[in-house]
Amino acid sequence: MLSSQKTCDEELLEALVKEISGESAYEVVKVLLNANKEITDEEIANKLNMLLNAVRKVLYRMYEERLASYRRTRDANTGWFIYYWKIRPDKVREAVIRRKREVYLRLSERLKFEKENMLFHCGNPNCQRLTFDEAMETEFKCPNCGEKLKYQDNTESIRVLEEKLQELEAELRELEKRCEESLLERSVLESY
Ligand SMILES: [Zn+2]
Questions:
Q1: What are the tens digits of pLDDT across the range 6-46?
Q2: d(CA 123, ligand 1 centre) in Å
Q3: pLDDT tens track for 36-75
Q4: H helices within the chain, ranges in order?
Q5: Cα of 165 from ligand 1 centre, angstroms
Q6: Which of 14, 43, 119, 168 has the most CB atoms around it within 10 Å of its CB?
């Protein structure tokens, strides 16, 4: 049970890391996963033959997403700080949920805008749509190409946005449910 749980989180972690930081970032994460203990940025750079700065960039990005944590000590000889890093696959679902919630919020704002505004467009795909107030100001001429602005029925945009929001809502519910289940599992296991 525990090992399949781990694999599931690690799969999710792989997808998320690749999405936010690319393939080479996942190489860094893989070293951390395989190490199974704290490891310094220098050790990772040596293992991957990668620039130390590039490794650090990935690590801080992971830290921002709360997927990695570090412990800092001072080297007694050099006086420099040494950072020991750890990857947190157990935090991946929370990170995915957080990101999806952000997308959800952005799309909700878009939907509100589409519903509350009459929109005008010249028909040129390179030009922006304008709200009624904006179109009034330019006397219903496109400020970009000068063509006449026409009312644009945005029923389809609204429908697409509503559909996407429903999908996201379902995904979030599913993830939150699984998140709670895995927390429950963990607490049961830990109580033995
Ligand atoms: Zn135009």
A1: 567 888 899 899 999 999 999 999 999 999 889 999 999 99
A2: 7
A3: 889 999 999 999 999 999 999 999 999 999 999 999 999 9
A4: 2-21, 23-35, 41-48, 52-64, 92-116, 132-137, 155-191
A5: 29
A6: 119
Domain of 68 in residue numbering reads as 2-87
Ligand 1 centre and the CA of 154: distance in Å? 17
In this structure, are 99 and 179 located in the same domain? yes
Centre of ligand 1 to C-alpha 147, Å, is 6
Q: Into how many domains does the chain fold?
A: 2
CA of 126 to the centre of ligand 1 (A): 7
Residue 131 CA to ligand 1 centre (angstroms): 14
Q: Does one domain contain both 151 and 97? A: yes
* Final residue belonging to a domain, choices 87, 118, 137: 87
pTM of the model: 0.71
Query: Is there a single domain that holds both residue 166 and residue 77?
Result: no
